[in-house]
Amino acid sequence: MKRTRLKFTHDQLLEEVKKSIAKSLHRYKVEEKKNSHFSNIDCLMSGLAVFTFKFSSLLRFDRVSCMIEKAKNNLKQLFNLEKTPCDTQVRTRLDIITLDVLRSSFKRIFALLQRGKILEHYRFLGKYYLVSGDGTGVFSSNSVHCKHCCNSKRRKKDN
Predict the structure, then answer these.
(1) 49/78 Cα distance (integer angstroms)
(2) Whether the predicted model's global pTM rises above the 0.70 cut
(3) Strand 128-129 vs strand 123-124: parallel, antiparallel, or unpaired?
(4) Widest CA span in the chain
């Protein structure tokens, strides 16, 4: 049986993300919000949990993490959260944090995957990485949009 490299376990990758985010928050001098019970890191890691577990919205994440004790414990343990912030706290905090803070954690994970030769399976034409991602149909709104939004057209269901 092949042994998993230490750096590529779920816990180690999340720990690397968390460390990179902490360094970036310090580097970009992102201050903690006064009178708040939640740290910036807990809000960012909660945002990551929303995408990891494919919650349909921040509100759904909030309801699950508040109402289901096992889910709350799992989130705290898996994402090493001190406290699980509510959807409003996550939204408010993420609005003020620039993408530069998150970019360093992406670069760190990407570098680890490159160094570990994991990305070799995704090489295309010798020098590109081919990664497929599809977020269409996951989130949509009839009221929130801009001129650059994609339009989706749904077929009528046959009766």
Answers:
(1) 9
(2) no
(3) antiparallel
(4) 58
Q: Give dist(CA 43, CA 27) in Å, integer.
A: 18
Rounded-to-10 torsion of CA 112, 113, 114, 118: 150
Q: At 153, which amino acid appears?
A: K
- Collapsing DSSP to helix, strand or coil, 143 comes out as coil
Neighbours of 97 (CB within 10 A): 18
Q: Tell me the mean pLDDT in the region 49-67.
A: 82
For residue 35, name the pLDDT band (cuts at 50, 70, 90).
low
Secondary structure of 48-116 as H, E, C letters: HHHHHCCCCCHHHHHHHHHHCHHHHHHHHHHCCCCCCCCHHHHHHHHHHCCHHHHHHHHHHHHHHHHHC
Give the length of the chain. Answer: 159
Q: Is the pLDDT of residue 17 over 80?
A: yes
Give yes or no for residue 48 having a pLDDT over 50. Answer: yes
> Which amino acid, one-letter code, is at 135?
G
Label residue 126 exposed, middle or buried (CB < 10 Å: 0-12, 13-18, 19+). Answer: exposed
Give the CA count within 13 Å in the CB-facing half-sphere of 131: 6
